[in-house]
Each structure stands twice: as C-alpha cells, then as structure tokens.
Amino acid sequence: MFVPLPFILSLALVAGAATNTTKLNKRGLAFAADNGTDISRANQTTGVVSWVYNWGLIPPDYLASSGIEYMPMQWGAAGIENLAVTVKGLGSKTILTFNEPDFSEQSNINATYAAQLWMQYIEPLKASGIRLGGPAVSSSTTGRPWLTDFMAACSQCTIDFIPIHWYGEGTGGFYDYLYQVHGQFPNHTLWITEFAETSSNDSVVLNFMNETITALDGLDFVERYSWFGYFVSSQR
User: Fold this and answer.
1) In 3-state terms, what secondary structure has residue 223?
2) What pLDDT is recorded for position 36?
3) Of 62, 103, 111, whose CA–CA distance to 232 is shortest?
4) Which residues contact 209 (CB under 8 A, 6 or more apart)?
5) Which key words tag this protein in UniProt (predicted)?
6) Which residues pair with 24 in a beta bridge?
7) Residue 224 bridge partners (DSSP)
C-alpha cells in the first residue's frame, strides 16, 4: 500500500508536527478520506488538531469519539433548502459555505446568485446563534474578483469570517496572498481552510508546514487554519 507524503504530514500535523502537543483551537485539517482511524487515534493520544471538515454537512463516523470538532459545509447550491434543518440537528455552532464558487470544476456559482442563496438560506441561521463563514474562493486569478463581487452583492449578509485557499511553492507566495486578502478585507478575520506546499520534496513540504503554522498561530487576523490532507492511495 502506497501512502503519499501529504497524508503522512497530515498525521504529523494532528500529532503535533512542531513538538507542541497541547490542543490548539486554530489548528484543523481538511480531510475527506472515508477511514480516518489513524487521524482519530493520533488525536486521542498526542493530538493538537481541534477541528476537521470534509466538504460536506454530515460528520463521518470516525469523529464520534475522536475529540475533534466537525465543521459542516454547504458545498454548493444543491440541497441548500435542507441546510437549516441539518445544521440545527447537528447542534453546530459554525458553518462553512460554497467551496471555490469561482471555479467551474468546483461549486461554480455566480456571485450575485450566491448572494441571493445566502440571504434566503444562510443568513437566517444567524438568528440561532450560528457563526457564518463566507464562500471559500481559490487563490487563482478568479478568486478575489469573485469574492469582491459577492461582498458587494451581499452587503446585507452577516459574514463572520472569510475562508481562503492557497496552493503553491514557497512561503513567500503564501504570505503575500494572505496579506493581500487581509488588506482588502481588514474588518474580517480569515480562515485558511485549504493550504499546502506542492513541492514533491518531503523536507520542503515539512519545513513549509512547520514555518507557516507557527506564523499563523501568531497572527490575530487568522482565526483558524486547516492543512489539506491528501487522500490515502491504494497504488502499489
């Protein structure tokens, strides 16, 4: 069984890649593999990850006894009419919304239509005390323009924080993008809900992980972050 490096690093993040084994409220994991036994076991022993999401609304079974908070996401427009019932049934305190709506390969929602969906189905959850995460755009050339259009169209929306994604090589590009978004939306805290170094060199990826999570832990405008946990492969 071949297990790719990023999955191993995901477990390192859960178990405390930077030697700190106290659970950290900021630290999460974006992880969609069906069998999370290794993550659950690691977190029960020396775990520092406090939350996980898998791009869906319903938590996987393996999280039931893991001690990890599940963060539900309304990935796209489909099924959004059931959002309130599902989220309230889970007792969720925070939700994520619309995964990379600026991409045709992802949730692919026009910014104006996304604002209409928000006001009809998402905004009412605020009255129940649920925190609302904005749409999570990509770091491509379409991401920030889409988010700008959405924020203008959804001026009456309650957006408690803005999630963003980033993939690339080197910490410089990551920090540049992070501060660009913060500079554009200084009144919102940020969640980095997907990020990873894309180098094939294991030392480069691990060094990137350790440096960036240390930096993110010290930034007041970054509320939470989650490393992108690549899926376990069955290649031989």
Assistant:
1) strand
2) 54
3) 62
4) 9, 12, 13, 17, 197, 227
5) Signal
6) 49
7) 191
What CA–CA distance (Å, rounded) separates 70 from 57? 9
Q: How confident is the model at residue 34 (pLDDT cuts 50, 70, 90)?
A: low
Q: Which amino acid is at 227?
A: W
**Which pair of structure tokens corresponds to residue 17?**
């890649």
pLDDT band at 15 (very low <50, low <70, confident <90, very high): very low
206: which residues sit within 8 A by CB, 6+ positions away? 9, 12, 17
The better pLDDT of the pair 190, 21 is held by 190
Go through 150-182 and write b for each residue having 16 or more CB atoms within 10 A of its CB, e for each that does not: bbebbeebbbbbbbbbbebeeeeebeebbeebb
Q: Which residues are 228's β-sheet partners?
A: 30
Predicted local confidence at residue 149, as pLDDT: 98
